[in-house]
Amino acid sequence: MNYSDLIHKSYEFPQRGFHTKNQELYFHDVRLMDLIEEYGTPLRISYLPKISEQIQYATSLFHAAIQRHNYQADYRYFYCTKSSHFKFITEEVLKNDIGLETSSTYDLDILARLTADGKINTHIPVVCNGYKQKTYKRAICNLINEGFENMIPILDSTSEFRFYAENIRENFKVGLRMAADEKPNAEFYTSRLGIRADELINFYNETLKHSNAELKLMHFFINSGVRDTSFYWSELHRFVTKYCELRQHCHTLDTVDIGGGMPIQTRLDFSYDYEYIVDEIVKTIKYICEKHGVPVPNLITEFGTYTVGESGAMIYSVEDAKQQNDRESWYMIDGSLMTQLPDTWAKRHAFVLLAINGWNKDYRQVTIGGLTCDSDDFYNAKTHGANIYLPEYTEEEPLYLGFFHTGAYQDALGGCGGIQHCLVPEPQHIIVDKDQEGNISTELFCEEQDSAVMLQILGY
Ligand SMILES: Cc1ncc(COP(=O)(O)O)c(C=O)c1O
């Protein structure tokens, strides 16, 4: 049995986004060997069409569920910008009818720049989340005062409100984030983000009700994601029940923001019933609202990982194979997992991992080793949850492998263009696009970082 037989027998393959031809891997119909031949490795790839596809799919699921349940309110997709701030990503997102979710001061500078460039206008719906320092609050006030009429600061704490009340000239809208409980095995009972559930109604009655702000939405975010678990459903229930109680005090409240956390494919045998989950969310919210006799709210999601995760890939060459004892076999790659895919190290996150060439060769079980000297710079079966089989490597023929669906947070966590462990350089990054006729185009977004830049940062 060769590598190709193994993959075809172990998984449903080909599958969405992946197929082979002439013993080579294609990603969304893009021949990856073409990219490697043109650009070399290590190579970070952003495949833009996947982003709009994700947005359209989730939006269609919410609209279908809304219709199915005769849910008398609307849905809007927001993009959580922190999952990837790159301009080309935001511009792709903005091809769709979406809103934006911000999380820090500089996010608002991005909004100002997009407005100046004519990519958005001041009508765009924006929700501003996160714990807010003064600079962030000031930037929010500035943009609202400049005409961003659909910008809603979501209060992370009750003390945040005063700044807006004092600095926004006209009437404005606000949201409240309710602090979610953490999973039973977490280190804390309640998230540090948001306002305690039992403070919300008093805060509304004592402060917001008498201010120049209109309470518009309630938000929560479940760290562990939108999962079909009793924990998720019971937190959603608790949150919507609180929404109903607050709605009975406040008639301007008409929107619920259920946050991010929609999962993506991280392994070949991934299965997740998006349609069922979305249907269940809409049905549950309607059921609880009817029970309390309040109108159903408009729905907002702020998916980050779901929007951009599956658009990304990271491609490496195998530099060497090392057999360190009878059982432990390593493939050393020309990059670093720890710095370039930091979720693999910090969160033990798995990604889809496949060979790009050599599918007709025998396979072997390996651990992937990164370039830094840190003992945690590896990717293996035990830590990352799936056996790792790759084609036999020989010195005579190059072997390439790809980690797929790496488009969210990896640059944000690993940094972009700074100083990394063992001075591993930032890899080159290309943007891949496809036109209406199916023609593929590529563009070099950034070259591999050179030593001059690093030495300058280091003061040499
Ligand atoms: C408030 C808020 N909304 C949305 C998101 C996006 O989450 P995800 O990338 O899992 O969709 C996050 C992520 O941390 C968040 O904190």
Total separate domains: 2
Helix content: 25-40%
Cα-atom radius of gyration = 24 Å
Shape: globular
Instruction: Kindly report the average pLDDT value.
Output: 96
What is the CATH architecture annotation of the largest domain?
A: Alpha-Beta Barrel
The poorly predicted ranges are none
Number of helices: 16
Strand content: 15-25%
Q: First CA to last CA: what distance?
A: 54 Å
Give the CATH class of the largest domain. Answer: Alpha Beta
Please, could you describe this protein's structure?
The chain is α/β, with parallel strands linked by helices and 460 residues long. It has two domains: 3-40 and 313-457, Lyase, Ornithine Decarboxylase, Chain A, domain 1; 50-303, Alanine racemase (TIM Barrel). 32% of the residues lie in helices and 23% in strands. It is built from 16 helices and 22 strands. The protein has helices at residues 3-10, 32-39, 49-68, 87-93, 105-116, 134-145, 161-167, 200-206, 230-249, 274-292, 305-308, 337-340, 342-346, 381-384, 410-414, 451-457; strands at residues 18-21, 24-27, 30-31, 43-47, 75-80, 99-102, 126-128, 151-155, 172-177, 213-219, 255-257, 298-303, 312-323, 329-333, 352-355, 363-365, 367-369, 378-379, 389-391, 400-404, 428-434, 440-446. The strands form four sheets. Strands 4, 13, 14, 15, 17, 18, 20, 21 and 22 form a nine-stranded mixed beta sheet that branches. α3 crosses α10 (274-292), α5 runs parallel beside α6 (134-145) and α9 runs parallel beside α10. The longest helix is centred in the N-terminal third of the chain and has 20 residues, at 49-68. 40% of the residues are buried. The mean pLDDT is 96. The structure holds pyridoxal-5'-phosphate. Residues 80, 83, 101, 129, 221, 259-262, 302-306, 408 line the site of pyridoxal-5'-phosphate.
